[in-house]
Amino acid sequence: MRSVGLVLHPRRDCAEAVTAILEWAARRDALVLGIDDEVRRLGGAVIPVPAEQLGPRSELVVSLGGDGTMLRAMRLADRQCAPVLGVNVGKLGFLAEVDVPDLAGALSAIDAHRFTIEPRVAVDAVLDSRLVTAFNDVAVVRVPGNKTAVVAVRVDGRPFIGYAGDAVIVATTTGSTAYSFSAGGPIVNPEIEALLVTPASPHSAHNRGVVLSLRDTVELAVLPASGRLAVEVDGNVAGHVGPGECIGIQPRPAAAHVVRLGLTTFYERVRRKLSLTDSPEILAIPPDSPDVG
User: Fold this and answer.
1) Which of 14, 15, 93, 239 is most buried by its number of CB atoms within 10 A?
2) Of 280 and 115, the one with more pLDDT
């Protein structure tokens, strides 16, 4: 591995992780690249490059932060060959693969090809003639002070279902543990290629989400009874839409690739992150009971 690109959390202290990467790279005569306006705080050891060059010039992109930083790293690596390694700096994230103390060993394992790649789906949408890309979700969300979000979901150009509520979320399976989960959607292993459509605080009698194939093209049509809605892309407001407007959403498989070293499973990460526990009825059953196992 001849080059490693860094994506830094904007506020958390990444110095320990950066030092570990620089020491590892020095032993292998590898370059360490970083986004120019992010690495100024690190001194001159990391080579600054424009954000749009980080993915093309890196053989591995390393995200130092939480899930938000990881999503940004995936967007920078979008349509590139470089896989993304998530390093947890601070809070435990769903997408992180290693903690800082394990970073040097993880880099050596990747250099020795002892890892697997997990492809991740992106969704593309056109908003105000701009193409926006999300790895978690695209959501149309009621603006405070405005009327409810009233949205028709069209699949492959045909009406499918309508929702009235606070928001309608179109999520990848990567994003199943984010906004969609908070709105009552299911937890889905990101290895499953699908789209989740989940209403948030639905006012309508039908309040269930749906799962769609990646072969489907999804449109969110804002109906006349709706208020003005914010369009959130991976949690960031990218624009607004009003009654009569429509957003087309196109899934794109294998847009980015995440490094997995086999240290934990998706289900173990979810159980830890969400503090999942069994129901009291199950916990009350003695271990040697015939009802167990």
Assistant:
1) 14
2) 115
